[in-house]
Amino acid sequence: MTRTTSPAKAPATSSATSAAKRSYTLLAGCVLAGLIFLLALVSLFWLPYATDDTSGGRLTGPAADHLLGTDKLGRDLFTQAMTGSRIAVEAGLGSVLIAAVLGVTLGVLTAFAQGWLDDTLSAFLDILIAFPTLLLAMLIVAARSATLGSAVLAIGIAQSAVVARLVRILVKRVLAQDYITAARTSGTSWPRIVAGHVLPNIWPTLVVNLALQFGLAVLAEAGLSYLGLGAPPPSASWGRMLQEAQATFTTAPAGALAPGILLVLLVIGVNLIADGLRDTLDPATRRRRA
């Protein structure tokens, strides 16, 4: 007699496989990004050498006393890489915080707009998004001064338009639901509706987007530092390390490889975390992939 497999087991197996993939993606992202965050945390309390210590000799190779060698000024490259990890994390977190505060506030306010005001605000957000983030950040930094704080502020303001448009779309979708109408009919005020119904329903998608914005902010800060518009010396941003090492890449490749690899690992890790969070937090995505 031929044995048949019960069809009821297939969905359960598919669901378990999808859950495993989500877990592995999130775990891999946490490991990659966690290593960089750990390096940044350690740099707050300990560094192998002072950031302005030039006693290591020019362009020496990796050795026991200088794990990655030294740059053209004799500074320890491992010390610079650790300092760069802290700057990258600070830039990412600071920019995302600014983008979240400005973007959520502006997005919620524009979601309540109607008619011509809605069209005007929507067009304004589209124009800001169409404007290159790095160019807008360069203009803001140039108008202030080349510091890490200016770079973080510039990147955060530039990214707030993206967050605001996403929040506007999500909030309008929530406001169209029947339970919002029922809440208004019962006399619930708009602030309580936003706090009790709107924000809890949009935060899963918002968290995923902010995780992606973190990676973009790190890349933007590296780009600004490469152009000399980021954290000034002796702070060693990864972008500044890449700029300084490009002339000596053939003789001392570690000066460019170390910050480049760390930058790639951090961005990939954060993107994997965002992908894992999207699959975990978004019910629609879970149903499609089940």
From TrEMBL:
<keyword id="KW-1003">Cell membrane</keyword>
<feature type="transmembrane region" description="Helical">
    <location>
        <begin position="206"/>
        <end position="229"/>
    </location>
</feature>
<dbReference type="InterPro" id="IPR000515">
    <property type="entry name" value="MetI-like"/>
</dbReference>
<keyword id="KW-0812">Transmembrane</keyword>
<feature type="transmembrane region" description="Helical">
    <location>
        <begin position="249"/>
        <end position="274"/>
    </location>
</feature>
<keyword id="KW-1133">Transmembrane helix</keyword>
<feature type="transmembrane region" description="Helical">
    <location>
        <begin position="91"/>
        <end position="112"/>
    </location>
</feature>
<feature type="transmembrane region" description="Helical">
    <location>
        <begin position="148"/>
        <end position="167"/>
    </location>
</feature>
<keyword id="KW-0472">Membrane</keyword>
<dbReference type="InterPro" id="IPR035906">
    <property type="entry name" value="MetI-like_sf"/>
</dbReference>
<dbReference type="InterPro" id="IPR050366">
    <property type="entry name" value="BP-dependent_transpt_permease"/>
</dbReference>
<comment type="similarity">
    <text>Belongs to the binding-protein-dependent transport system permease family.</text>
</comment>
<keyword id="KW-0813">Transport</keyword>
<feature type="transmembrane region" description="Helical">
    <location>
        <begin position="124"/>
        <end position="142"/>
    </location>
</feature>
<feature type="transmembrane region" description="Helical">
    <location>
        <begin position="24"/>
        <end position="47"/>
    </location>
</feature>
<protein>
    <submittedName>
        <fullName>ABC transporter permease</fullName>
    </submittedName>
</protein>
<feature type="domain" description="ABC transmembrane type-1">
    <location>
        <begin position="85"/>
        <end position="274"/>
    </location>
</feature>
<dbReference type="Pfam" id="PF00528">
    <property type="entry name" value="BPD_transp_1"/>
</dbReference>
